[in-house]
Task: inverse folding
């Protein structure tokens, strides 16, 4: 049971978001910009950073919903997401993304863990200042979202089909379009 | 030196916020709602939660600027903020706020650290579901802001007078308006 009273059947972050619309709007606007806004990093790359940080924070709901979104953006490549979470250094992704995942992983531990060498390495592999900035902010943003989801002990179902459906919906509609408010029984239909 | 090229002489989070105005907008809106929106917790109490979490994350800029905002809300009581960071259990604040600070401190460590007992204690001391929700989200949000500030190695002034000015501005104008006025304030130096 969640730590506070939340709407029934609404999973993960969506429960607290429903009871707090004033804070939800800027959080959803930020998710949309960070993960889907105009960027030289693809939405799939940014969702992979989100899924990886959420996995390091051990947040079931976030790592599976953003993992599913990344996989759906890549034509359903769920195997790649599992490889990234297990060991991104050996996963078939670009060296630039690997260097950015190192930066993101350090941000997850704490901002001061990011070193000049981490950033220099990302730059050597072609990352721009904006890409480094966005990686740091995506990682920081998920350190917030993961804590929001787990800090209130929200309901986090384990049925992979639900996450696949959610990932497809985000790919099609993004974070700010209405639809996320529905209980799963309705949304999954 | 910051990890990426940021405007010179602009302290803490203000550097990356001006680097990325599109993401700055929802981030400032979120701070405004969380710390100054209509709430049964006073702005001073919410700024104290922000300060305490920032201090646990060892983020100098955030703990000093929000500590100053909290102190200015309390008529300049900087000593209370010091006591709070040192050991809030012995500080002269309400038992309810102490219980909420326990929750915030656990969110800082990670969402799963918050226990049913922590929440029950806060409730026993009069905290509502909304206040518990807000304490969790404020703590989570500062786990984002702190990482943004330190993950990019921003310039963080050491002069306490700089933070008093910021605290006065944040307490009187808030986050969205203070940001709008920032360029003039920096230029006026």
Result:
């Amino acid at each position: 049971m969640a730590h506070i009273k939340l709407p029934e059947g609404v999973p993960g972050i969506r429960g607290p978001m429903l009871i707090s619309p004033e804070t939800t709007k800027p959080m959803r606007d930020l998710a949309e910009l960070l993960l889907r806004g105009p960027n030289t990093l693809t939405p799939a790359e940014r969702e992979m950073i989100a899924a990886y940080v959420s996995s390091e924070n051990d947040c079931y709901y976030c790592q599976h919903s953003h993992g599913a979104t990344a996989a759906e953006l890549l034509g359903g490549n769920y195997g790649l997401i599992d490889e990234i979470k297990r060991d991104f250094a050996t996963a078939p992704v670009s060296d630039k993304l690997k260097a950015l995942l190192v930066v993101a992983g350090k941000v997850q531990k704490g901002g001061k863990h990011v070193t000049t060498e981490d950033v220099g390495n990302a730059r050597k592999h072609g990352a721009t200042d904006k890409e480094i900035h966005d990686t740091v902010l995506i990682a920081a943003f998920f350190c917030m979202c993961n804590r929001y989801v787990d800090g209130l002990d929200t309901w986090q179902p384990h049925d992979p089909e639900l996450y696949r459906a959610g990932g497809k919906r985000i790919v099609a509609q993004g974070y700010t379009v209405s639809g996320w408010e529905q209980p799963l029984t309705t949304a999954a239909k | 030196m910051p990890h990426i090229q940021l405007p010179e002489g602009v302290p803490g989070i203000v550097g990356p916020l001006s680097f990325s105005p599109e993401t700055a907008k929802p981030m400032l809106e979120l701070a405004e709602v969380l710390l100054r929106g209509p709430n049964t917790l006073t702005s001073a109490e919410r700024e104290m939660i922000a300060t305490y979490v920032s201090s646990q994350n060892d983020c100098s800029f955030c703990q000093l600027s929000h500590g100053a905002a909290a102190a200015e809300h309390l008529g300049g009581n900087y000593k209370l903020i010091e006591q709070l960071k040192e050991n809030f259990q012995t500080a002269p604040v309400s038992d309810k706020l102490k219980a909420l600070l326990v929750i915030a401190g656990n969110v800082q460590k990670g969402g799963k650290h918050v226990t049913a007992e922590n929440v029950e204690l806060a409730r026993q001391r009069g905290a509502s579901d909304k206040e518990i929700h807000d304490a969790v989200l404020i703590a989570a949000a500062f786990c984002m802001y702190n990482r943004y500030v330190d993950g990019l190695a921003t310039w963080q002034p050491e002069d306490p007078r700089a933070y008093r000015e910021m605290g006065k501005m944040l307490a009187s104008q808030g986050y969205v308006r203070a940001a709008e006025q920032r360029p003039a304030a920096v230029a006026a130096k």
